[in-house]
């Protein structure tokens, strides 16, 4: 079996300069000291793991930990805003709803989190890596093969205590170390560039056209 992953526009996801990043964080109400974990999903928050993530955040007492939730229609967002308030973490969760461009929100964040139950291919996780964010994910098809434990992120069990432990690991890192993990994530994401995707298909067509078949 030959696997050719979907491509990521690494150049488009390039992180901004420090001034632009600080401006984006300030616009969202985050300070330089805050550690912002970003969760991105069009919907299906239950399957994507937002309830689990809110529960994990509740277990993390460090007030620097903030969660930025990107995506979701109004009714869904309002439901989870109430849920966050009920868990006592509403002051540390920022909902921004559906967005046509997620880049400014990724660029304002420190770590990408996706404790999903199932993904066909979590392209947004690789886009986050290309944006220079370390990854904190559960075991997901296409992503667990990409994450190098401790180098560009962490794969954790899909339960609140394990996710909370992952959040705590990033909170314990000095900002320079956390940024270095993000740089490694971006570097590793480069193998998913569009030109590599095209080359992989050309190679496959050439091999099939020549009659070559691997065992």
Overview of this protein structure:
A six-stranded parallel β-sheet has the order 3-2-1-4-5-6, with helices on both faces. 38% of the residues are buried. Helix 3 (50-59) crosses helix 7 and helix 6 crosses helix 8 (175-189). Helix content is 44%, strand content 13%. The protein is α/β, with parallel strands linked by helices and 215 residues long. The protein contains nine helices and six strands, in the order H-E-H-H-E-H-E-H-E-H-E-E-H-H-H.
Q: Which key terms come to mind for this protein?
A:
alpha/beta; globular; Rossmann fold; 215 residues; 9 helices; 6-stranded parallel β-sheet
> How would you name the oligomeric state of the polypeptide chains in this document?
single chain
End-to-end C-alpha gap: 9 Å
Instruction: Give the helix level as a range of percent.
Output: 40-55%
Overall pLDDT score = 88
Computed structural class: alpha/beta
Element order: H for helix, E for strand? HEHHEHEHEHEEHHH
The total count of helices amounts to 9
Shape: globular
CATH domain class name: Alpha Beta
Per CATH, what is the topology? Rossmann fold
Rg over C-alpha atoms, rounded to the nearest angstrom: 18 Å
Record field, number of beta strands: 6
Q: Which second-level CATH architecture applies?
A: 3-Layer(aba) Sandwich
The amount of beta strand, in percent, is 5-15%
Q: Give the low-confidence spans.
A: none
């Amino acid at each position: 079996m030959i696997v050719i992953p979907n491509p990521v526009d690494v150049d488009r996801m390039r992180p901004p300069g420090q001034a632009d990043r600080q401006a984006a964080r300030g616009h969202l109400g985050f300070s330089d000291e805050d550690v912002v974990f970003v969760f991105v999903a069009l919907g299906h928050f239950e399957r994507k793991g937002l309830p689990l993530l809110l529960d994990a955040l509740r277990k993390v007492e460090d007030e620097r930990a903030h969660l930025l939730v990107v995506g979701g229609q109004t009714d869904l967002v309002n439901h989870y805003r109430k849920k966050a308030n009920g868990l006592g973490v509403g002051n540390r969760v920022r909902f921004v709803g559906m967005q046509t461009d997620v880049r400014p929100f990724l660029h304002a964040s420190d770590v990408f989190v996706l404790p999903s139950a199932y993904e066909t291919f979590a392209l947004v996780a690789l886009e986050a890596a290309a944006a220079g964010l370390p990854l904190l994910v559960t075991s997901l098809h296409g992503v667990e093969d990409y994450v190098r434990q401790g180098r560009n992120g962490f794969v954790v069990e899909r339960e609140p205590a394990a996710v909370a432990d992952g959040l705590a690991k990033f909170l314990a890192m000095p900002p320079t170390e956390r940024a270095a993990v993000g740089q490694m994530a971006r570097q590793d994401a480069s193998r998913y560039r569009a030109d590599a995707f095209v080359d992989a298909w050309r190679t496959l067509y050439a091999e099939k056209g020549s009659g070559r078949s691997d065992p």
